[in-house]
């Protein structure tokens, strides 16, 4: 059975940094696109960032480019989201997502449909 377990959320001040982690278990990590979505209260989930095992197959939502960085450690089956320069509008619940054999570009335009596996979510709150 596949599981995604996120960690690293919390409450911070504007301008601070957080690093989210997500560990995948139950399937091969090396051929799985890993990504992050976020959800505001009462809104649909929106894409944040994704990375596949292919070189340069990394995508970001425009609003987080140059502030957030996604990375993956295949030895630890873990994907990270380093979030710098956090803003109050980054306040949301962040979800880890996994798509076997997909592409990061595909995840970036999927609006979450077609994501095979989701984590439970981790809350990020940024105060001004």
What does the model show?
With 128 residues, the protein is mainly beta. Helix content is 5%, strand content 49%. The chain has one helix and eleven strands. Strands 2, 4, 5, 6, 9, 10 and 11 form a seven-stranded mixed β-sheet that branches. Strands 1-3-8-7 form a four-stranded antiparallel β-sheet, with no helix packed on it. It is globular.
Could you give the topology of this structure?
Blueprint: E1 3-7, E2 10-13, E3 18-25, E4 32-39, E5 46-51, E6 58-60, E7 68-73, E8 78-83, E9 92-100, H1 104-109, E10 117-118, E11 122-127
Parallel strand pairs: 2-11
Antiparallel strand pairs: 1-3, 3-8, 4-5, 4-9, 5-6, 7-8, 9-10, 9-11
Summarize the structure.
The chain is mainly β. It has one helix and eleven strands, in the order βββββββββαββ.
E-strand count: 11
Secondary-structure element sequence?
Answer: EEEEEEEEEHEE
What is the 3D shape?
Answer: globular
Distinct helical segment count: 1
- Rg, alpha carbons: 13 Å
Specify the biggest β-sheet. Answer: 7 strands, mixed
Contiguous runs where pLDDT drops below 50 for at least 5 residues: none
Distance between the termini: 41 Å
Strand content: over 45%
Going by helix content, strand content and strand pairing, the class is mainly beta
Helix content: under 10%
Q: What's the mean pLDDT score?
A: 95
């Amino acid at each position: 059975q596949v599981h995604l377990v996120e960690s690293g959320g919390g409450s911070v001040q504007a301008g601070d940094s957080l690093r989210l982690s997500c560990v995948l278990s139950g399937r091969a990590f090396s051929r799985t696109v890993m990504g992050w979505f976020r959800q505001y209260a009462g809104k649909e989930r929106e894409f944040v960032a994704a990375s596949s095992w292919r070189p340069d197959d990394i995508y970001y939502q425009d609003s987080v480019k140059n502030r957030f960085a996604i990375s993956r450690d295949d030895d630890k089956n873990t994907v990270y989201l380093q979030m710098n320069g956090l803003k109050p509008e980054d306040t949301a619940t962040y979800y880890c997502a996994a798509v076997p054999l997909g592409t990061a570009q595909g995840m970036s335009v999927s609006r979450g449909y077609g994501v095979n596996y989701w984590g439970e979510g981790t809350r990020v709150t940024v105060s001004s």
